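Data card: per-record layout.
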Amino acid sequence: MEKLTPAQKELYDWLVEYIRTEQHAPSIRQMMRAMNLKSPAPIQSRLERLRKKKYIDWTEGKARTIRILYPPQKTGLPIEGAIAAGQLVEPFTDDKEQLDILAILHRPNCFALRVTGDSMIEDMIREGDFVVMQRPPANEIPRNGEIVAARVDGAGTTLKRFYKFADRITLKPSNPAFDPIEAEADQVEIQGILVGVWRDFFTQRQIH
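The structure for this 208-residue chain is written out next.
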């Protein structure tokens, strides 16, 4: 298949993930928001290129009919069953699913941060972990309770739970030893929303 440009790949990856999770195609307006574009023309141009390169297709004259022609092949680790953290459960079965770690890592607009400090330990996020964050579309506000990477004017960047009430934002730790951070909304920049946490037990084991 013909290689995609970075802009085409960004849209294609987003389309793959959106259609996989929502089970239907997005609108042009949704694609504009996701790509941080104010005009439909660049979206339409990228879609035409993706179609010409045979990555996608759609039904002429009908909205939301985009379909992925060559979905990425499944990657990941086989899910062998469940493991008890309480009572015993049935052992592994022959039925196999795939834990697709790459699906998280390859989401559009994602980046990773190494955690320092222990203000989020009650959410099972501790020092040395890597958090995978997704940049929110322009002007999109996280939902109350979501874990975000936020930059506070004059205070730096922090990983906390987000709460917004009127024009005030509270960044709440998940550790009673730490105090919440209170700030005006215009003093807080949301840099990412948590989508995953990675902890390398093998490396930690070798270090210790």
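Known properties of this structure: DSSP finds five helices and eleven strands in the chain. The longest strand covers residues 188-198.

See the next section for split statistics.
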